[in-house]
Design a protein that fits this description.
The complex is a heterodimer.
Chain A: E1 3-12, E2 15-25, E3 30-34, H1 41-49, E4 56-61, E5 64-65, H2 71-74, E6 76-79, H3 91-100, H4 106-119, H5 135-147, E7 153-157, H6 165-182, E8 185-190, H7 193-199, E9 202-207, E10 210-215, H8 217-222, H9 227-233, E11 236-244, E12 247-250, E13 253-256, E14 266-273, E15 277-280, E16 289-297, E17 303-309, E18 314-320, H10 322-328, E19 335-340, E20 344-347
Parallel strand pairs in A: 3-8, 3-9, 6-7, 7-8
Antiparallel strand pairs in A: 1-2, 1-4, 4-5, 9-10, 11-12, 11-14, 12-13, 14-20, 15-19, 16-17, 16-19, 17-18
Chain B: H1 18-47, H2 51-60, H3 64-96, H4 102-109, H5 111-114, H6 117-128, H7 135-140, H8 149-175, H9 178-185, H10 190-219, H11 222-228, H12 238-247, H13 251-292
Helix pairs in contact in B: 1-13, 2-13, 3-8, 3-10, 6-8, 6-11, 8-10, 8-11, 9-10, 10-13, 12-13
Classes of the chains: A alpha+beta, B mainly alpha.
Chain lengths: 352, 296
């Protein structure tokens, strides 16, 4: 079942949570809504589910307008950040809830619950109470419960947000495998870009109630649409400079920038990812700037080197491979040349 | 805590000087014994002073006395059931909805605790008495409120109104609405939601409120005194009966009825203590689950 969101706007008092947002989720896709807190991602999810009503705009499931339909009529599976399991019910009763309120026959309920508990690898826990389970197990029960009544869409609100790092990692991969098995159209909210990129088919990056970019993880990583996306993805160094007549000048580094041919100079920002910076002992003819090594963090699998450039007055983060690091034999205090292999320039009409 | 400066370990409450501990404990125990234990024991001693046979006679010889017991056992549960419904509705509204006047409603719920019951009785008299606001209409339709069963129930209801609501509001606020939202997202309708999710979570607190409400309802005197009219065998509840027997210098009779009231109170106390313990566990479990869930 595909989901279409058309021109949805939602305000809470004077705060605009969603500003004319439109989005298509094709049937069977696993889509991530990614953004900082307050970006409107959870509000969008709740509007898709029917837990929240938009001020204007429409929500369609397939071709059916469900904007005014109540949650219980939409048949969605919703997974909450804090599980929201029924604390006085056993795992079995929790999963059976959606079927019982629909008055399904007992035998069908029993079979379906067992099938789902197998799917979430919790068979044998039927009689446990939520309080006897670990966080990861609880969230799997919540997922089984959401899937019980065969929902048209599965919506997950920061499903792994309350779990510790290791369990998060496991559940992420597990969710991906589960989705490959059952193919229900799914939307999940996260503020963790790693999670979004690892799990989803497509990622929607949101900020201030607007969608900044929609694309596959690779598309977004390779071609960030704007400085916000670039910055949000993290692990980047920012240079301030200007563009003029097809060239971008950032201190003593100059690169071609054919997108801007005007002869009038305009402020620009350049983004270079940590692994796109190279450290050299001496100049090699390519654009580079002088910097001093201030800190070395040998965190595997790469060595994270921090250098300070006096020209720009900025600290740069550089990721080096272990081979390269050993070859250079860097120690704090060394003066080196830092050279960008690739940089993305954005003309500054954009305020982060 | 003047001595803290000289001691490496900070003084905790249980390390208060011995004499302070003893004085406080002794004061509390003395007051309790003088004001609660002695009178309570005295009620039973006086009631049974001439043996169980006389006690029985005091209770049942005059038919007005058993009638007062029956009346109380009818008025109190009726008031409790009404307040159960009002209390649930009020607690639900306050704990689950944000609406203008919410703080005002919360304050209003406590009103019966702060107004003297006699004032409440007079108030009902002014509204529903034959000379009162609704008087002509009631007379026309031959409905008796004041000096009749409905008046007794209304007075009792008003005075005990806050009990159930006040018990439920903090419990429902601690529970949060998450499970209910989850139930709605799973397709539950209003009644299913209440029966399958809300009620099991608040059952002990609710029962505790009911027991407490019942205790207050059975013992209510002031408001009922005004609206009852003291029609022996018809509108005399147990507390009113005790007072009447006492005024008639029938002390053994007064003590006998009082002993029945006291026994009902003791049973209530026992049930209440058990439920209190259950409710506390309910609350603690909720808090534990919340902290396990991490920050909101």
């Amino acid at each position: 079942m595909s989901i279409t969101v058309k021109n949805v706007t939602k305000s809470f008092g004077t705060f605009v949570a969603l500003n004319d947002v439109s989005l298509e989720v094709p049937a069977g896709e696993l889509l991530a809504l990614l953004g900082p807190s307050g970006s409107g991602k959870t509000t969008l999810l709740r509007i898709i589910s029917g837990l929240e009503a938009p001020d204007s705009g429409t929500v369609l499931y397939h071709d059916e307008d469900v904007t005014d339909a109540a949650v219980r009529e939409r048949n969605v599976g919703f997974v909450f950040q804090h599980y929201a399991l029924f604390r006085h019910m056993t795992v079995f009763d929790n999963v059976a809830f959606g079927l019982r309120v629909r008055s399904r026959p007992k035998a069908e309920i029993r079979d379906r619950v067992h099938e789902l508990l197998r799917l979430v690898q919790l068979d044998g826990y039927e009689r446990s109470l939520p309080s006897q389970l670990s966080g990861g197990q609880r969230q799997r029960v919540a997922l089984a419960r959401a899937l019980a009544a065969q929902p048209k869409v599965l919506l997950l609100d920061e499903p792994f947000g309350a779990l510790d790092a290791k369990v998060r990692q496991e559940l992420r991969q597990w969710l991906r495998r589960l989705h490959d098995e059952i193919h229900v159209t799914s939307v999940f909210v996260t503020h963790d870009q790693e999670e979004a990129f690892e799990v989803s088919d497509r990622v929607v990056i949101m900020n201030h109630g607007k969608i900044e970019q929609v694309g596959s993880p690779a598309e977004i990583f390779e071609h960030p649409a704007n400085p916000f996306v670039m910055d949000f993805l993290g692990n980047v160094n920012v240079f301030h400079g200007s563009v003029q007549s097809g060239r971008a000048t950032l201190g003593n580094i100059e690169v071609a920038y054919p997108e801007y041919t005007d002869s009038e100079s305009r402020a620009a920002m350049a983004f270079v990812r940590s692994h796109e910076l190279e450290i050299l002992r001496t100049k090699n003819g390519r654009p580079s700037l002088e910097a001093k090594v201030t800190h070395i963090n040998p965190a595997r699998p790469v060595v994270k080197v921090r250098v300070y450039s006096e020209t720009f007055g900025v600290v740069l983060n550089v990721d080096l491979s272990w081979d390269r690091f050993t070859e250079l034999g860097l120690v704090p205090g060394d003066v080196v040349q830092v050279s960008p292999r690739q940089m993305r320039v954005f003309v500054q009409d954009y305020v982060i | 805590m003047a001595e803290t400066g000289h001691r490496p370990v900070p003084v905790r409450a249980h390390e208060d000087p011995r004499w302070v501990q003893w004085t406080l404990t002794l004061t509390a125990v003395t007051v309790m014994v003088l004001l609660v234990v002695v009178p309570l024991v005295n009620v039973f001693v006086e009631a049974f002073a001439s043996g169980p046979r006389v006690y029985w006679k005091n209770l049942f010889e005059d038919p007005d006395t058993p009638d007062s017991i029956t009346l109380t056992l009818m008025v109190a549960p009726t008031a409790v059931i009404l307040n159960l419904i009002f209390g649930l509705a009020a607690a639900w509204a306050i704990a689950r909805f944000k609406f203008p006047g919410r703080a005002f409603l919360t304050a209003l719920i406590d009103l019966p605790f702060t107004v003297s019951p006699v004032v409440v009785g007079l108030f009902l008299l002014l509204l529903f008495g034959l000379q009162g606001f609704f008087g002509p209409w009631l007379r026309e339709h031959d409905i008796h409120v004041v000096f009749a069963f409905p008046g007794l129930v209304m007075a009792t209801c008003f005075v005990t109104f806050p009990v159930v609501a006040r018990e439920l509001i903090p419990l429902m606020e601690a529970l949060g609405a998450e499970e209910e939202i989850a139930a709605v997202s799973l397709g539950a309708r209003g009644w299913q939601l209440f029966r399958m999710v809300t009620l099991p979570n608040i059952k002990w607190g609710l029962l505790y409120g009911v027991i407490l409400c019942n205790a207050r309802a059975m013992g209510e005197f002031g408001a009922v005194y005004v609206v009852s009219g003291h029609i022996a065998g018809k509108t005399d509840t147990m507390p009113l009966r005790v007072e009447k027997l006492f005024q008639e210098y029938n002390l053994p009779g007064a003590f006998a009825v009082a002993s029945v009231l006291a026994m009902l109170a003791l049973v209530t106390l026992l049930v209440k203590t058990t439920l209190e313990w259950k409710t506390r566990r309910e609350l603690e479990e909720n808090k534990r689950l919340l902290t396990l869930g991490g920050e909101a």
